[in-house]
Design a protein that fits this description.
Order of helices and strands: EEEEEEEEEEHEHEEHEHEEHHE
Helix content: 10-25%
Radius of gyration: 20 Å
Number of domains: 2
Number of strands: 17
CATH class of the largest domain: Alpha Beta
Number of helices: 6
CATH architecture of the largest domain: 3-Layer(aba) Sandwich
CATH topology of the largest domain: QueA-like
Oligomer: single chain
Distance between the termini: 25 Å
Low-confidence stretches: none
Strand content: 25-35%
CATH superfamily of the largest domain: QueA-like
Strand order of the largest sheet: 2-1-17-16-14-3-12-13-15
Shape: globular
Mean pLDDT: 95
Structural class: alpha/beta
């Protein structure tokens, strides 16, 4: 299976640079993966494609202002850091730029000393481990010093930083937003709840994989970066009950999919669990957890495009993407949405 097989032509003007004024005004492409039928709608009408008893699973991770600009303590050389994963008390994995300036023992200073990072381990591809030194609450310091780590294809300044958060974001720790959830408003979630759709939350902190393209020719040679996930006992019980009763589980976003599939692969059913996942889903994978997927339009040759191609087949997804391009849908993080159903 070749990475180039997941390429498609996308005019640059279709890459959404800013969010719509109203989240739920985005367009919605409805894809039936059994009969290959395509329909067009607005996300505000998502309730028409869900029914009473369905379980809607959302990723409640919260993006931190993880991009930091500082300098080396000794030489004053400028350094950019992107915090990725916390793996211990004040210990973080991060992406350093330029990485060649950050060696073992290098100390970086941010905000005139409000925050210091000491490099404790060096890895390939710009990855470093750091010990953080600060006084007070780290979240407050990051709010003061950091910037939202928008993807590199977004060139416009985001005036309202909250628009890169879902309205239900809660658990701090992501380096990127679970963007399929950006289309939901609190009013729309209430509307779904009133209809009888059961809403549950899992957590997956989005990390390096969001920023890294697939660089190998053969898909099978690609290694996923690990990301922290968590699912509660209550959510697991709700999902198991839905499975037993034949009710549908709808995942919002590839991060929710990866969480649910990780847990069910490991335990054989849904369980209270947390840990790190490196699950890589590509065509040939047999889904065990989900019945329907709500997702955005993904980058060419990305692991996310491979995941949705596994859910509906590469042929069906590429046809849907060509239709979206023809109809001038908006693509990527601030773009439009699709629901893939049976």
């Amino acid at each position: 299976m070749k990475t180039k097989d997941f390429d498609y032509i996308l005019p640059k003007e279709l890459i959404a640079q800013t969010p719509l004024e109203v989240r739920s005004d985005s367009r919605l492409l409805i894809l039936n993966r059994l009969n290959k039928e395509l329909k067009h709608d607005t996300f505000f009408n998502i309730e028409n494609y869900l029914k009473k008893g369905d379980v809607l699973v959302l990723n409640n991770t919260k993006v931190i202002p993880a991009r930091l600009f500082g300098e080396k303590k000794e030489t004053k050389a400028n350094i950019e850091i992107l915090l990725l994963n916390q793996f211990g008390l004040d210990s973080w994995e991060a992406l350093a730029k330029p990485a060649k300036r950050v060696k073992l023992g290098t100390v970086l200073v941010f905000g005139s000393g409000l925050l210091e990072l000491e490099c404790t381990e060096v890895f390939d591809d710009g990855i470093r481990h750091f010990k953080l030194k600060y006084e007070g609450e780290l979240e407050d310091i990051l709010d003061q010093l950091g910037e939202m780590p928008l993807p590199p294809y977004i060139h416009e300044k985001l005036e309202n930083q909250s628009r890169y958060q879902t309205v239900y974001s809660k658990i701090t720790g992501s380096a990127a937003s679970p963007t399929a959830g950006l289309h939901f408003t609190k009013g729309l979630l209430k509307k779904l709840g009133d209809k009888g759709v059961i809403i549950e939350y899992v957590t997956l902190h989005v990390g390096l994989g969001t920023f890294r393209p697939v660089m190998v020719d053969d898909v099978l040679n690609h290694k996923m970066h690990s990301e922290f996930y968590q699912i509660s006992k209550e959510t697991a019980n709700t999902l198991n009950k839905a499975k037993a009763e034949g009710r549908d589980i709808i995942a919002v976003g590839t991060t929710s999919v990866r969480t649910l599939e990780t847990v069910i692969n490991h335990y054989g059913s849904f369980r209270e669990a947390s840990g790190f996942t490196e699950i890589f889903i590509y065509p040939g994978y047999q889904f065990k957890a989900i019945d329907t997927l709500i997702t955005n339009f993904h980058l060419p040759k990305s692991t996310l495009l491979m995941l949705v191609s596994a859910f509906a087949s590469k042929e069906i997804i590429m046809n849907a993407y060509n239709e979206a391009v023809k109809e001038k849908y908006r693509f990527f993080s601030f773009g439009d949405s699709m629901i893939i159903r049976k």
